[in-house]
Amino acid sequence: MILLGGIPSESPHVFLMEALDELGLEYRFFNQRKCADCTVELHIDSNGVDGKFRIGGEHFRLGDFTAVYFRLMDDRLLPELEGQPEDSRSRQRARALHDTLYRWIEVADARVVNRSDPQGSNGSKPYQAQLIARCGLRTPETLITNNPEEVLAFRERHGEIIYKSISGVRSIIKLFDESDIARLEHIRWCPVQFQAFVPGTDMRVHVIGEEVFATEIISDKVDYRYARRNGGQTTLRATKISEDLARRCIALTAELGLVFSGIDLRIGPDDEVTCFEVNPSPAYSYYQANADQPIAKSLARYLGGIPADDAVDVLSAS
């Protein structure tokens, strides 16, 4: 039995459930929006950790779940809890339920995608960049500062630079231009991450165990994720990467303690590869829908313990 968790209408879950149904794999879904109808309890003894999980009217032994895929939203933001005080009984109950589930998946004897602790590397982009570099992938020249003079000197040295969030909170990547100079004093109150602009073509590589799916992104905006919002265009297409790069992406994912990752690369004019970050809970559905990538099928196979169709073919995106 496979356990899924999150919001069932979210497209990564929709695609995954379709793939699981196609493979005939049995699963149950923990719908966070109905967490008031769920209970969980852990049992710890000399045999390890087990417990019980009630989802609506069904009861399950935790040990019977052979695989887990959680893509959970912050339970504090659940619409059902909107307007309730922080110390309300409903909020405390929801928090306790989620805390218990997070603790369980850390030690569950199951195929977990992904465990909670390894995902923490994405909470600090500078820290994650060090881990990326250890795996032999180039990272962009970076400055983290709250000193405007250092930013201007960094720009003078590199020509074009971009800026973005240091944390795991998503931010829009922007080129630093003349209009930003007038606002530069604001960083004295909050350090900001600046990076040398790296020319080239964006690439998102999804790794699932030993399978790799590469998507080339062609866009006329610096941050392709928000191109349409800013009047731009973005085209995605499945592409092939070298076996060496595929192996390095697999190794990086494993080094971070992940099974499933979304790795953001840029391939320069000289074919030099730069790695920007690794997403430990990738919204892969965008790439699957726009580049016809069979990512959900691969994820479903992994959760079901089904070997990849052909490891050689998978190293080059389908």
Give structural attributes:
Dna Ligase, domain 1; 318 residues; disordered C terminus; alpha+beta; 29% strand
How would you sum up this structure, described in words?
- This protein is 29% helix and 29% strand.
- The chain is of the alpha+beta class and 318 residues long.
- It has 3 domains: 2-113, Rossmann fold, CATH 3.40.50; 141-196, ATP-grasp fold, A domain (Dna Ligase, domain 1); 201-315, ATP-grasp fold, B domain (D-amino Acid Aminotransferase, Chain A, domain 1).
- The strands form 4 sheets. A 5-stranded antiparallel sheet has the order 14-13-12-15-16. Strands 2-1-6-7 form a 4-stranded parallel sheet, covered by helices on one side.
- A hairpin with a 2-residue loop joins strand 3 (38-45) and strand 4.
- Helix 1 crosses helix 8 (295-304).
- The chain is globular and about 60 Å long.
The gist of it:
This protein has helices at about 10-25, 90-105, 125-135, 150-160, 180, 245-255, 285-290, 295-305, 310-315, and strands at about 1-5, 25-30, 40-45, 50-55, 60, 65-70, 110-115, 140-145, 160-165, 175, 190-195, 200-210, 210-220, 235-240, 260-265, 275-280.
What does the secondary structure layout of this molecule look like, with pairings?
Blueprint (H helix, E strand, L loop, with lengths): L1 E5 L4 H13 L3 E5 L6 E8 L2 E8 L2 E4 L5 E5 L17 H19 L3 E3 L11 H10 L7 E4 L2 H11 L2 E4 L9 E2 L2 H4 L10 E5 L4 E8 L2 E9 L14 E6 L3 H13 L4 E8 L5 E7 L5 H7 L3 H10 L6 H5 L3
Number of strands: 16
Q: Main sheet, how many strands, which sense, barrel?
A: 5 strands, antiparallel
Overall shape: it is globular
Strand content: 25-35%
CATH C-level name of the largest domain: Alpha Beta
